[in-house]
Amino acid sequence: MRAGALAALALGLALAAGGRDALDGWVAATTLPPLTVATGTEVLARDGTLLRAFPVADGRWRLAPGPVDESFLADLVAYEDGRFYDHAGIDPVAVLRAGAQALAAGHVVSGASTLTMQVARLLEEGPTGTVAGKIRQARVALALERKLSKAQILDLYLRLAPYGGNLEGVRAASLAWFGKEPRRLTPAEAALLIALPQSPEARRPDRAPKATQAARDRVLTRLAAAGALSEDSARAAMREPVPARRRDFPALAPHLTARLAAAAAPGARIETTIDAGLQRAAERLARRAIAGMAGQVSAAMVLADHRSGEILAEVGGADWTDTARAGFVDLTQAPRSPGSTLKPFVYALAFDDGLAHPETLIEDRPVAFGSWHPQNFDHAFRGTVSVRQALTLSLNIPVVHLTEALGPERLLAALRRTGARVELPGSGAPGLAVSLGGLGISLEDLVQAYAALARMGRPVTLSALAGGAHPREGQLFGAVAAWQVADILSRIAPPPGGTPNRIAYKTGTSYGHRDALAVGFDGRHVAGVWLGRADGTPVPGAFGGEIAAPVLFELFDRIGAERAPLPPPPPATLILPNARLPQPLQRFRPRDAAFAEAPAGGPELTFPPDGAQVEVPEGGLTVKLRGGVPPFTWLANGAPVMVGARARESLLPLPAAGFVTLTVLDAEGRSASAQVRLTP
């Protein structure tokens, strides 16, 4: 008897060992479904909040969980799978309990499905009510437990659990039903997110609120009975109403976020420099700006920190869902005529070359450039004015004179050095009309060009991507010239209600009133506003000064405490009345209006050559010229460094390092320039 018992025991152990080995082999041979779960692309604001999320390819809203309320996770495990951290994928205790309850009641009373089994079903989207389906879920669950940690399994559940409609995962559900991230949940919210996946369609809050509330309250009751929640907290949570509707997902900066998402890999997490508060304010401002305007008028804005190059807000259109206004078109990227907003660059180049000074006198009279007879916007002429008045009043004749002296290619080269993409009409050969807006440039590129003006002539690449902004090489013009232009622009009268001297700004209106613009900057920020129709149809009565400038000033008002004053003049700035200027700077002498060649014998720099890198000895830089009529005036970055020189070789006191534009003027007002890089 004793030997027989021992033999039976040995046989039982052998069978158990064989069964264990067979089970191990069966689990090891399991073919697992793909464990990489696609999630939607996310674009984040500078503080990490969600600007916009995108669904996955099949249209489901499924997002990476991110931080999730620890209390919710504890309640989820307590409610769904109390021994989750102890079992190997199948809970034998739950199986025995469910079997006993079913035998006693004659029907299924409770399930034995673990969280790992639920993940197995969700990964394969398998059936839930068949024996074969349950066996498959059990097998996959056992295999998952061997391959993944408990945290990884729970993460898959948080990504895949269904929450009604095309919502999957706890984060998408929390955003859709509560309008918030799941990092902090109330007991009522947590209970709802636990209840919904059990029957996501039958318990949808927006379609079956009574069923939703009943299911949520059952979860609260059970959590209270288990001691996971106090009775008082459970009763208070039951009094909270369930959500009445599904909320829209965040969609701030829709044009920008769509552009960034299209350039990134699916499921990317894109960090930006956008300030969510400023972005909301800018979008509200854009909608208000077009309210009541006839036609399909839209608005676009760009606001950036020119010190860092970071874009803080960008509005591609007043309403991206409004098809009548072509709301889908990103008007920050569309090439449009800039109107008069390029005039400051002409003046800065002229100041830098020594062609003019803010107090230089210049003529505003009828003139012909070949067959072209430019007119001022109001068809009036002011006669002799100062350059300061010419820019302040945005007169056309003076700026065309200066453009003719500089050459229109010079303006285009300066714009391109800022990184701006410039489109020319027709053959592509630039004419004098480029200074009046006769080219195409996007609003974002125009604001980037103004950032260089705000940065004392140093260009910067603006970007909304974290880490994407960076300074550009070179110098458009000297700090003195940049400050002189900014000083003039800051004294332009603001629109009604605007604060005087708050910003340096310029407005523009394109031919036919197709585009109304205002661009400006203070000591830290630069911004641009555009209004018009996306299809380029004229908008009668649309002037940049009347409809765009007020919006620009309001946009700067939204900046709040971070606003910064414009900088003081550089030490080399020549602040003098006209009568005390060097003689060549007292009055601008244009070339012949019909593009005649400059008089022979003008000054020509022979050393240093344009674009050279020159080592500067302690005593200064030796410069040489030929031609011209003495006496000569030498300027560095628009500021005189030597006046009345008669020799054709001079020693100029210059800084030991950096970019500098050297200009020499002769007694006839003729000039020559070279941009060089000085090294110590």
From TrEMBL:
A Pfam short name: Transgly
Q: Which residues form a coiled coil?
A: none
- Glycosyl transferase family domain residues: 70-223
Tell me where the signal peptide lies: 1-22
In Swiss-Prot or TrEMBL terms, this protein is called peptidoglycan glycosyltransferase
Q: Does the keyword Transcription regulation apply?
A: no
Q: Which InterPro entries does UniProt cross-reference here? A: Beta-lactam/transpept-like, Glyco_trans_51, Glycosyltr_51/Transpeptidase, Lysozyme-like_dom_sf, PBP_1c, PBP_C, PBP_transglycosylase, PCN-bd_Tpept
Native organism: Paenirhodobacter hankyongi
* GO terms for MF: carboxypeptidase activity; penicillin binding; peptidoglycan glycosyltransferase activity
Catalysed reaction per UniProt? [GlcNAc-(1->4)-Mur2Ac(oyl-L-Ala-gamma-D-Glu-L-Lys-D-Ala-D-Ala)](n)-di-trans,octa-cis-undecaprenyl diphosphate + beta-D-GlcNAc-(1->4)-Mur2Ac(oyl-L-Ala-gamma-D-Glu-L-Lys-D-Ala-D-Ala)-di-trans,octa-cis-undecaprenyl diphosphate = [GlcNAc-(1->4)-Mur2Ac(oyl-L-Ala-gamma-D-Glu-L-Lys-D-Ala-D-Ala)](n+1)-di-trans,octa-cis-undecaprenyl diphosphate + di-trans,octa-cis-undecaprenyl diphosphate + H(+)
Which GO cellular component does the record give, naming just one? outer membrane-bounded periplasmic space
- Please provide the record's keywords in A-Z order: Carboxypeptidase, Glycosyltransferase, Hydrolase, Multifunctional enzyme, Protease, Signal, Transferase
Q: In which pathway does it act?
A: Cell wall biogenesis; peptidoglycan biosynthesis
Q: What is its EC number?
A: 2.4.99.28
Q: Boundaries of each Penicillin-binding protein transpeptidase domain copy? A: 300-510
Q: Which PANTHER family match?
A: BINDING PROTEIN TRANSPEPTIDASE, PUTATIVE-RELATED, PENICILLIN-BINDING PROTEIN 1C
| Domain Penicillin-binding C-terminal, residue spans | 596-676
Q: Which family does it belong to?
A: In the C-terminal section; belongs to the transpeptidase family. In the N-terminal section; belongs to the glycosyltransferase 51 family.
Q: Which GO terms describe its biological process?
A: peptidoglycan biosynthetic process; proteolysis
Report the superkingdom from the record.
Answer: Bacteria
